[in-house]
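Cross-posting from the chemistry board since nobody answered there.

I work mostly on the small-molecule side, so proteins are not my area. We synthesized flavin-adenine dinucleotide and want a rough idea of how it might sit in this target. Sequence and SMILES are below. Is it possible to get a predicted 3D structure of the two together?
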Amino acid sequence: MFGFKHENDLVKLLPEVRGKYKCDVPMSKHTWFGVGGPAEVMYFPEDDEDLSVFMKTRPYNLPLCVIGGGSNLLVRDGGIPGVVIKLDSKYYRRCQVDGTIITCGAGMRNSDLRKILLDNALGGLEFLCSIPGHLGGSIKTNAGCYGKETKDVLIKVTVVDEEGSIFDVPAKDLMLGYRCSHFPDDWIITSLTLQAEPQDPAKTNKILNEHKEKRMASQPHNQRTAGSTFKNPEGLRAWELIKKSGCADLVVNGAKVSEKHCNFLINTGNATAHDIETLGETIVKRVKEETSITLEWEVKRIGVSK
Ligand SMILES: Cc1cc2nc3c(=O)[nH]c(=O)nc-3n(C[C@H](O)[C@H](O)[C@H](O)COP(=O)(O)OP(=O)(O)OC[C@H]3O[C@@H](n4cnc5c(N)ncnc54)[C@H](O)[C@@H]3O)c2cc1C
């Protein structure tokens, strides 16, 4: 019916859509850590109408989750039961500029904003260009760096909800906080509007390069990681607590603490998700013992253990 090379039982129960389904997709291919078992089915909607039909007619109680660029995710080795939605069609990578207002699909990579800023003599969003991942994921996590967060530049989003309704939500109603949001987990952000400001491209380019240099100097690059593992507790820095607690050179099989930034965990090549999670939980335990502070994971852990 769907013309698959490979089918599983779940996909036979799913509604007919214009987008694509893929069965038993290794999540290691969709995450920056490069680990994780298979998604039972991945669904790549064509556009909002297609996604809406899927949400309205999907089987009752079907487990669902949405991913972006997978740069803030640790998917467990047993994979993800149900359907993983990824906004990856051309529709979700579109972008339109109207003066200083930029409207994009939520599947657009943050780094693609760079060219848009330069081509349109705009600035103010340089911080976002340096953060890995896609725009939808960056709203959910309220990603930020160098003194700015996504919420500072977000005007509104379009959402498809669990019942398939499509509607706009102003940024303030998403309740974005430090690396978190308080809107329902079953809302899928499908597009968004950002506020930029007029700026000489030479200045924008200079800021972009400064951010890149800062990252190269302080964070691991070209390595399998998901960025900062733990949130900074109020008034403190997670990396300082990790270092103080003697965790800066911890290793669990193929997973290790980055030598460059000890709040980053690295898959050195053959780590499992279990190795990475065990390393993280060991850090949480030791930091608690040494400082009485409980670190909170910034990386989202999803899926089931093997
Ligand atoms: C090297 C490195 C450096 C990093 N530096 C920073 C940094 O400086 N600042 C920072 O804040 N983060 C940083 N991160 C973490 C990460 O890049 C950000 O959190 C990023 O915004 C996540 O986007 P993503 O598309 O990869 O989301 P994913 O990792 O795919 O998903 C993250 C969360 O968003 C949800 N989600 C994804 N798409 C949608 C959608 N369309 N609608 C609703 N929910 C959605 C997912 O369900 C999940 O809960 C870094 C990561 C790496 C690997």
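Reply from a structural biologist on the board:
Welcome over. Reading the output above for you: The mean pLDDT is 96. The first strand starts at residue 20 and ends at 26. Happy to explain the token format if needed.
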